[in-house]
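Researcher: For the annotation table, I need structure tokens for MFS transporter. Please keep the output clean. Sequence:
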Amino acid sequence: MTSSARPISLDDAVDRLGLGPFQWRLLAICGLTWAADAMEVLLMGFALPGISAAFGLERGSADATLLLTATFAGMFVGALFWGWLADRIGRRAVFLTTVALGVVFGLAGAFAPSVAWLLVARFLTGFAIGGTLPVDYAMMAEFVPTPWRGRFLVYLESFWAVGTVMVAGLAWYLSTVFEPAEAWRWLLGLAALPGLIGLVARLGIPDSPRSLLVRGEERAARAALERVARANGTALPDAPLQVPPPAPRVTPAALFAGALRRRTVLLALVWFGLSLGYYGIFTWLPSYLRAGGLDLGAVYRTTLLLALAQVPGYLLSAYLVERVGRRGTLAGFLGVSAVAAFLFLLAGTPGTVLGTSALLSAALLGAWGALYAYTPELFPTPLRTTGMGFVSGMARLASLLSPSLGALLLTGQLAVALGLFAACFALAAVCAWLIGVETRGRQLSEAAMPENAA
């Protein structure tokens, strides 16, 4: 490297390396873990009938609600802790640790001898996988060139649908092989295995060069970029990297300083409202369908169809975030979700119930895709995973409340529950629009500058 060469920014370096095998491999690896996380988050809704049969729990009992809540409680704590830690020590260490712990605690739940032990195992599983969200999306955002970044972040979120299909299909199959009181243990054990595969695959991924550079490790940052260049068959420019000013000590309080305060609060409200409605509906949906008279096989088949309905929502979101922009796509999908929840309430036949719930499923996952593309771009590098951890923590806080509110679906108060969830989606749409910042086509160093906030 010639000392006289003009330094280039990290954003320019990543853009010049282009899109290639490295990014696609990273997407597959992070996507596999994200699908595994989706299975862990949603499987208690599928396992609850069998757990209730095994331990004699009554429908809608406090223990049943706690079992649905335990994973989200762990994710709330984990998102705040792991997101902060990843900004302090680097992405890769947390990238590996959280997946390993998720596998261990997930398997432990399958062998739980009592409800109390199962609650602890599910809390610890949630604590572990709560860290994959802020870290995975920061890693993906920091390795993908600007023109493709939003689309790739939606692609990563679309693996949630893969995990949903996998857990629904696995639950359906196990219900045909085992009695419910035995099938749930197989479900919890098998759902933990994809995370093990993801852990092995992650060993070959370097730390984020952006995170390394901010922490003053210029040589390691350049080595990481060289690995990207070799994988993509391109060359890293023969110029030094621009070293940013030393990063201040990262504390969550920095999220509420200056212009970052507005976007942090509005983003937190979007994550809270979307999560409250999504999990309030879909956590209890299998039990709601079961209470309506469907056998377990029919419940799982219906849930599988609704999971497949998420795919068009993701594909449309991936197109719109680059065509229309992040903010408009997010607000639009949230608005459609509010309308779809209201239509679901009015549905009076099995066909219209399935149709409106499929529309709701597609719209909600389109909103999630846009939100995951938008959020990491709104925080500067020293605070990216801290910010992701905080707003996703607000989503987990909503998830703690959603099982209790979703239980209204089982007690005949459908109008109250769906009306509340529709209002949450509508409020989230307004908050998304009020953020006032569009990050489409902008490099991360520019997109995350607080001075650009409206």
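Researcher: And a one-line annotation?
Model: The radius of gyration is 22 Å.
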